[in-house]
Specification:
The chain has 128 residues and is of the alpha+beta class. The protein has four helices and six strands. It has a domain of 69 residues: Glutaredoxin, CATH 3.40.30.
């Protein structure tokens, strides 16, 4: 379900999507903050419905960060796949996140032209 919210600076509809893990406290806190502002984002439980490589590339572009900055380095696949190897190409890192979505940092709030990683959760407020 999407909710069109009028962005006062643009006066056009804006749809927000939250890459969410309901088991993650930070993700739940970010969702609560978003809802406290009267916005009901599209919830994408990315562990159940991982993004494809093109979608993840688009998210990275909106975030303005390289793939390595989106990796969760303490997850088992990070170590098992030797993703700390700095010589790995960006596409290899993206494919690893597509195959093992647990590697994707969370939560991510995505708007029309920008996105933000909600760590700490208050960061989501910067694009509302």
């Amino acid at each position: 379900m999407t909710l069109d919210v009028i962005n006062p600076s643009q006066e056009s509809p804006m749809t927000m999507t939250l890459y969410h893990n309901p088991r993650c406290m930070k993700s739940r806190e970010a969702l609560e903050l978003i809802r406290s502002k009267g916005i009901e984002p599209v919830i994408r439980e990315y562990l159940k419905d991982p993004p494809d490589a093109a979608t993840l590339g688009s998210v990275l572009k909106k975030l303005g960060i390289p793939p390595r900055a989106l990796l969760r380095t303490k997850e088992l696949p990070y170590k098992a796949l030797h993703l700390s190897d700095q010589s790995l190409a960006d596409q290899v890192l993206i494919e690893a996140m597509v195959t093992h979505p647990i590697l994707i940092e969370r939560p991510i709030l995505i708007g029309l032209d920008a996105a933000v990683i909600g760590r700490p959760p208050e960061r989501v407020l910067s694009i509302l």
